[in-house]
Amino acid sequence: PGTRSHVSMAVIFIYKVVLAVEMLILAGLGILSLLNIESALQNIINRELIVRAGGALFDIWSEPPIQPIFKVFVFNVTNHEAWLAGNGSVKLAVQEIGPLVYRETWWKTNVVVRSDGQVSYDLVKRFELVPELSSVSPDTVVIIPNIPFFSGAARMAGQDMLTIWGFQSAMEMFESKMFIQRTMEEVLWGYEEPLVVGATMVLPEDEIKVPGHFGLLAGRNLTSEGEYTIWGGGGPGGLGDLGKVTAWKGQTRFHAWSTKECNAVSGGEGSQFPPGITKQSKPSIFVSAMCRPIHLSFVKEKQVQGVQTFMFEPDQQVFNYSAPANQCYCVPPANCTDSGVFYVAPCKFGAPLVVSWPHFLDAPYHAQRISGLKPNEDSHRFHILIQPVMGMGLSASVRLQLNLDMMQVHNLPPFDSLPVRRLLLPVIWFDNTIQEPPETLLVLLKDALALPATLARGAGSLFSALILIQGSIYLLFTRTDRQTDSIGLSHQNSDF
User: Fold this and answer.
1) Which of 33, 324, 364, 495 could form a disulfide with 459 if both were Cys (CB 3.0 to 4.6 A apart)?
2) CB atoms near residue 324 (< 10 Å)
3) Measured between alpha carbons, how far is 220 from 190 in angstroms, rounded to an integer?
């Protein structure tokens, strides 16, 4: 009996040691699970963001379940005759007309997923008029500057006399005027313009979408603006490069700016950013119409139907030519002392066009030179809401204004007698808004965001239960050990 009790005590001791070690291991694993499993599970979910045929989110990526609202405002010039006759004593006045509202549908075609992780596609957009949301009719008549006329004049600067004579002859033949009357629909979707009929001296062929017609969106309904190539998240840079544009229309660089860096096609595609966005992140959006990216900065946190997002706005220096990062864009005819505007002529084959925020927000010098403008932070500021964990853009208001750079042109009537040497005249501004994603996408996103934490808590509970079970067994052996000690002591007492 004595021998058996000693053996039992040794076995129990060994079991106690093993159980103690197991409890320590389980406790350590439990702590590690709480610290790491949520991150690991989120990484697994984030890998589903990689653009690949058959992927969990491929259908949503290729046919976004959203219908952006596209609002158009045109600036009606109300005193052009008085301005032309005023020798600079009269301020040009405009009246905002709109919005004319369209609903957009987007889908990607010609999708090619490459072996190196890049993805190419064409983004097609359909515009459908929404009369019930519009405050004006497409037939509303406005007075605007004759953009092809001014574009042709700008392209005459530095040309030989024969070319200038040819342009003057065309002006006289077609009786071209500096200001014209057109309907809102014509301004957008095109009207017959004799100056653009085979006349690349007025506009380059790449800018003439409908032969013989000119419109700011002519030929862009149900068409692609050009093939995009992006990193799909499966390349050498992994998810850190997700959504970054590497080429547009098959080209990886422009020939518009003064440095290699600024000519590189770069920036995000705008709807998907790398996961793990922080408040210090500086995401950017590639804008093909400007041949450059727009860099963004964090503004504030905001909830979208219970989902946390970060609001980003364009960096305050993005249209400031004196900022070091923007000096490469200082290419004639840009006014390189300017701020709040961006001259896109080098990107648009010399067309005298300038981009700004609506109503010259952040460009007070230009705003005070035109009568009728009322810049407003809430109505005219560009912003985007990004879900930081997964990098998804959930809501946005992309607001941009197109202006005409009206300049005197030496020895070219009537442009040599403009009342001012140079003036930026607002023509139109756009508000392209995604108010919030559809409910189905929100539910999917909420589930994806909640799953890692839920599973981590479940794993933590499982480890806690295992520790409790092991602890109970340990206590049971401890109790048995004490009972064995008591029995052994009784046997010893009986021997005396």
Assistant:
1) 33
2) 8
3) 10
